[in-house]
Structures are given as structure tokens and as C-alpha cells.
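REQUEST FORM: STRUCTURE PREDICTION
Request ID: SP-0412
Submitted by: Lab K.M.
Chain count: 1
Length (residues): 234
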Amino acid sequence: MNPAPSRARTAGFTFVELLLALALGAVVAAILAALIHGLLAAGAGQAGRANGPVAARAALRALSREITCAFAPPVQNLVPLRLATSTEIGKPEVVLAPYAPVPAEPRALGGYDIAQITYEVEATSNGRRELRRIAVPCSGPLTNAPVTNRLFEGRFELAVEALTNGTAHAEWPRPKSGEQPGLPASLRLSLSLPGEPPLQTEVLIQTATGLRFPLERPAAEPEEPAENKSPADR
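STATUS: Completed
RESULT:
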């Protein structure tokens, strides 16, 4: 008795296999879409933190720390701090340029160098601005090689005022004052972001106000000789 001839399978998918392939493809596509959405959301959040209130507070803290260390170099007719504003196209809106100590390079050796630090607020596009820090050493081989860093970028406004004797000045040195250029007692900083309360602080300049170093202690009074003490004090 001859066996029944086997039926050869034709190429292609059956209906069940096609349904399984479509379901598997849909699951893979959904996973990829969730991953891409997560990456985009994380990138948007990171960008918001880099250009939002957190970054604004960090930039204001960095600015304040350096201003409090500003000092007047012992050079005749040298302006120790310059503050200027401008509305002209192509010029920075705010310029603040003090002299301050900066860590010496290489930092492993320790010590500090003196540099002129210039902070500039310049408009970029579509109402956005950049807060830049430009450092130029006062001596050494890098005096002609300024280093520029961007501290903050976005839609913001920075207002700086020099305070002396309770009076605020939008420019420093005061124009046509006829006085020897010096340091103001303090600077008032105000950084405003859209929809956020302004960040405001007043920074005292230690060399202008005579603030003591936090670790400075008054000299101890000399102890009296033992023969001058009364029996009760011995």
C-alpha cells in the first residue's frame, strides 16, 4: 500500500503568524516611542534647569562671591571698578568690571593671581540675553588671552547699582564727580526672569567697607604678672 503523498508548505505567513508579527511590531514601536518621549522630556527638563531659576540663582551667587573680593590695585589713576549701561545696538547692555583674586594656574600649586573680571550682559536674538564672564590676568603670559565663560542664557534682565552713602548709582565711577576713582561700599544686584519674582541681593565689598575676615579674632589682653594679682585672683 503506497503512503499518501506529503503536502509541501507554500512560502509566506499564515494568518495567525501575520497577526503575531503585527502585535510584536506594535509592542516594539510602543516601547521605542516611550523611550524617545522620555529622552526628549529629560532633555527639555535639563534645558529648563540650565536656563531657569536654578541656573539664575547659581549665576547670581557666582557674581556675588567675586564682587565681594573686589579691591583697588595700588596703581595711580586706575579705575578699580567700572559699571556702565548702554542701549546702543552692538554694545553690551550692562558692563561690570572689578579687579579680583583668582586661583593661580596650575591650581595644584595653590596661590592666587590678580585679574580684571568683566561681566557683560549682551542681547543675542528674540529677546534672549547672555551673561558672560571675561577674565584677563594682570600679569604673566596670558594677559593677551582673555578667557570667556557663559554664566547664564535666556530671557532675563540684570540690573546693577553701586551704593555709596545710601545713594544708588547706575554708573561707576560717578560721571563728572571730580573725585579720585574708588570702590563703592556695595553693589545691588537684581536678576529678573519672566513669570518669576526677581532675585535681589546687596553685596558688600570688603576692602571698601573694612569688614573683618570671619576667622579674625581680637588680640588677647596681656596677662598681669603674678605679683600684681590679689590673693583672691590667684
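NOTES: The two ends are 133 Å apart (CA to CA).
Reviewed by: T.R.
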